[in-house]
Amino acid sequence: MDYQGRLNPESKQEVLARVEAEAGKKSTDSKKKKALIQDVRILLSVCEKQFPNASFSVKSRVSNGDLNLTLRVSGEAADPEKTDSFRYIRDLFEWRYENGENIYTCRFSLYNTTWKSITFSWNYVKQHKHLLIFAVTCQMISAFLGVAAPIVSARIIRAYANNEAWRVMYIAFAILVIQLLRNLFLVVSNQGYNRMYTKTLTALENDLVRGVLQMQSKCLDENGSGLFIQRLTGDTGRIASGFNSLADMVTQILSYAGILIAMFIVSPAVCLFVIMMMAVQSFMEIFRTEQLRKDDKEFRKANEKFYGLTGEMVRGSKDIKLLNSEDDFSGELGERIAEANGKRLFMQKRSWVLKLFRWEVGEFGSFLMIALLAYLISEQIVIPSTALVLYNYYADLGPNAVKFFGSFMEFLADFNLSNERVQELLNEREFPREHFGTRELENPQGEIRFDDVTFAYDHEDPEHPGRNILEHLSFTIPAGKTAAIVGRSGCGKTTTFNLIDKLYEADSGKVMLDGVDIRELSRDAVRGNITVVSQSPYIFNMSVRDNLKLIKPDLSEEEMREVCRLACIDEDIEKMTDGYDTIIGEGGVNLSGGQRQRLAIARAMIRNTRIILFDEATSALDNVTQAYIQEAIDNMRKGRTVVLVAHRLSTVMNADQIMYMQDGKILDQGTHEEMLKTCPPYRTLAEMEGSASSENSE
Ligand SMILES: Nc1ncnc2c1ncn2[C@@H]1O[C@H](COP(=O)(O)OP(=O)(O)OP(=O)(O)O)[C@@H](O)[C@H]1O
Ligand SMILES: [Mg+2]
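Above: query sequence and adenosine-5'-triphosphate SMILES. Below: predicted holo structure tokens.
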């Protein structure tokens, strides 16, 4: 829907009517539709008050059960966070200001939760719907054969009675064939389901992995790894098996419906009573599962925290030991375990109490059923043998159907919750993704420029505005030159690198590569042209060879050995048990700090990009190795833009340009000699290093 006009009561009504009509076509939940209209009405009213008679446009689109609405209003910027009239609806939409227009965007869900979950899962399952159809057909045939077997066996009794031995054998053989086929179809159907499950799971997990890798760094900073691991490993499975369970349940429902119809033919009164009892118990079951869903949500949240800390415990076990804080850590972990298990216990306790109520109602129903049948017999409405059949039906159907209904509701609750959690991860509003432009750098030169850049890590939280880590930072590093950033720990050096590589984006000002705003550049133009050798490089739990091949899959053996030689790591690798095939351990635990750094330098050499940023890349190396590596780095400088961060001034002295950073600003810049003259803190650093080396030499 598109609308353009001036903000006044008539246009407001018109927009509301159109949005309602659009939502009405797709909505499966009238409550959600009402809430949506209410929200849009409030948004329009507030905008009308703020910008009376301003020109505005509304665009709404429905996709995947969501209505996405964009409202543009011309006028002064009215940031909802700072504008009083928006106070109550700040959480409703996102705001940005572009070319004299306030742009409000919001997304409303039109489907009820289950429908949304089913459509979401269907998007994955539909690619393998032939498998689903195949599996369901086989399952139906198997179920039909299951029903047919007892009917056929009934004929045996007649044949026995008639003394027809051959006929008995003939029927027994038919039963054998039916049972063999039934088992066969059941197994084939399960194979179909399993294949569908695996394919769906694979696609879903791949999407999530991609989603997590594309997330903005700050999302990953804010959420523990437990959250991602649980959703990726647990919830995806529940979603992938959703359609299997649904198909299973449909088959069950069909067979229960058959029994009810049979009952109705014999005695409508009994059938109605059974339906009534089933309805009462089912409502009780719905209530129980609703509670269970709420409790489960709490439990899973607590479990995520526990998982996250467990991961940290494994990764940081050495540090925990060295800090002699096993007790503190296990205390902390114990609290999380207790919290998660406490929540589970509460969930189970409540669930069992509610189950008990339902069971007792069921027993009471059996009592009533006997009374009803006794009455029907006494009134000669049914004969005793029929009453017995009806009671058997009830005894079988009643609890089984409700139990089935209960597990169906439990499954649905689980399925919906898992869907919610996975969709949240895939939702860019909840977990924003990195955004890149489309511009490429045809012939990258490697000039880096910061133009009045200000940045804070947690600026998004209006209650706790973050401290600016970089403030009005401006500098230019010409293409092909080597620059160095020095400054006290925490002054913002790594942060500057993070902005160059677009791990984070500047809050204001511009970061430019070759004179182009980094926001306009494509992922390849940025990341493909920059290599960062970080302060604490992450080496993956694979062989040395695979760690290097991760960067360049077609890396030749000679190339690999050559870069390792240049990075002075070749001898170390050859001494390892399996040489280049040695598995390095999670995070590179089997390597020394200096080996990790040298391997990271080897990785950088393989990438061979125009710009290389070394963040304390040689801090863990001894002086001799450092001198060798320095030579390799010096060789890499030719034709490249290199930025060095180092605390050891000897490492940066030869740079074309040295910048002294303090509290997120460049205090001074120049060559080593110039800085010694003009920048007192730099001189102090140099003097301290000089005195330190003279002390050492004494
Ligand atoms: N992911 C993050 N979230 C929030 N704050 C951060 C984050 N990373 C760094 N900071 C903060 O930003 C400031 C600058 O950090 P940065 O890593 O840029 O310092 P640095 O100059 O590289 O220091 P060092 O020499 O110790 O490596 C520090 O106060 C740090 O606490
Ligand atoms: Mg740093």
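The first strand starts at residue 2 and ends at 6.
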